[in-house]
Amino acid sequence: MRMLMLVVLSLAVISGCNNAQNKNASPSPQSIQGPSVASSVYNSVSLKSAGKPTVYATQNPADLSEKEHLEALAERVAGVNSAHAVVFGNSAVVGLDVDGNLSRSRVGNIKYSVAEALRKDPRGKNAYVTADMDLSNRIAEIGQHIQKGEPVSGFASELADIVGRIVPQLPKDVAPKNVPPAPPTSGH
């Protein structure tokens, strides 16, 4: 229980720490330069256009919920079969469903492309992108709990499942079944 509370508290702190922007910071070189050849190649090559009958991200973004908008942006990237998003405050987590046979480096490229697409969109700047299949499924289940009107219990339940898979099981913590513990020996 303490571990769960620690993880929830950590997520709350992390999601709240990136909200303030420094107005006096010098502009980054990326924002000063015009569009590069690489970004135009990225936009023309890796974004899907013919694969879906309707591309939601190109329609009026005001008509979409933030969740649907982020999912649509992620799904436009080549290699993404589907995407699930959960929005909390100014932050979001976007889970990607990609082909399980892809190499780790290709999955990394897809995640980077999605993160770049989200960074270019004002509503996607504070999004975390994951391509872990289990985590993506958990994000989808959190979204289902929210739609049912159970945001807190659904989030807590899925977070407990996630933490349960992440926390390592140490062999010394496993007691053999049906074997009584050995009696303590005296040190004489």
Automatic annotation (TrEMBL):
Transmembrane spans: none
Protein's UniProt keywords contain Lipoprotein: yes
Gene Ontology biological process terms, A to Z: sporulation resulting in formation of a cellular spore
First and last residue of the signal peptide: 1-20
Keyword set, alphabetical order: Lipoprotein, Signal
Superkingdom assignment: Bacteria
Protein name as it appears in the record: YhcN/YlaJ family sporulation lipoprotein
Record organism: Paenibacillus mangrovi
